[in-house]
# Entry
Amino acid sequence: MAHPTNFYVAADQNESSEKRVARFKQWFNRSRVGDTVKGGRYHEKPLTKRLVRKRALKREEFREDREKNKYFQ
# Structure
């Protein structure tokens, strides 16, 4: 894994520190950096081909249902 990079939010003129922190938190959550960091904490077993196939079929089924019902809501 690459070395972590420090992130910052540039201060806008006449912006309070609370507002800046809120903007940083919003950016951090949207960028999903925290998910990436937390996801690397523990080792997870790789998925079997069977499970990958099963999940792909389920996703395809959801997509088809969503496409069918797109105009009926």
